Amino acid sequence: MLIKVRLGDKAYGIRVKAGLLESPPIPRFLREGRHVLLTNRRVCKLAGQGLLGRLRNAGIRIEAVMMPDGERYKTLATVEKVADALLARGLTRKSSLLAMGGGVVGDVGGFVASTYMRGIRYIQVPTTLLAQVDSSVGGKTGVNLRGGKNMVGTFYQPSEVWTDPTVLGTLPAREYRAGLAEIVKAGIIGDPVLFRFMEGHVKEINARDPQALSVLIARACWVKAKIVMEDEFETAGIREKLNFGHTLAHALETGVGYGRLRHGEAVAIGMAFAMLLSRERAGCPRRDVDRVLALLKSLGLPASWWGYDADSLVRLMKKDKKSAGRDVAEVVCPGIGSVKVDRNVPEAAVRQLLKNPAVHAGFHQAGGGSSHVEH
Q1: Annotation marks residue 32 as catalytic
Q2: Per-residue confidence at 328, pLDDT binned at 50, 70, 90?
């Protein structure tokens, strides 16, 4: 499957196919100059060495550059080391960087590519589910500062994205499930067909069936690509739709510290909260709320914020970049397949829902069970 991201002279394709890396689609620009595969040692051992061998067999001059694995290495210091490695290997403006790994490698690799010699081509080769459906699409690059995540970065589109669902077979279970949250989000914000597909193929999804995953990844990428094409630089407000579930998610991540909750886990909890809030604020049908909560549960994702201090979460939610004024800004869902930004959610409503979600939402699932899914 090929998803075309149409951005004028920055247009590119997202290729999604099981087994893609066994026969990589080598573009013409790799036929000249020297190139680098940026990855980490774990990914290189599992899939990188094989890709390097196939590219070299095709006549491509490419070497591997290793970077440490983990969010704490997503820094300017790492960027400098990678750039130095590119220079030492003789990369020029005709060279390309292939970023193979999860979101950290993709973000660092994209940032290096956007700044090395004022910009070289790069290809995203995402190997985690979260990277395949989120960070590899849209052209956001960046690194963290002590004061916050992604505080230094660029908008810089890749030349291509190579996505192979078969590499997900070795992904740890928790990390795999966390990536599924972003696909659920894609269905909620812009693709009810994708959402129904997930409901009908839970068994295959949990078993990591490559064919089912190809469908999920391609449709999720298309949802994000459409939004990016309308609002590439986040200036029109359209790209805010991608933050569905993220207002509470970012508060949870900040409140409990990065690392204790996977980003996708925090997003799952945030989506459950946003759906319950949408009953009152956007007239979301009860059935749609139930469907979202049920799907999160069937995929092994958390949907409960019990155990976290509501007052602290409210304070952090009010600092969200969508907020303007004293109220809380939240992306709400009138119905599966559509979302909008509500910038005037009263603090009292948020606080009440955080403290007593099922009662506040005023509904229970069929059979008398609470709609609130325990973590």
Answers
A1: no
A2: very high
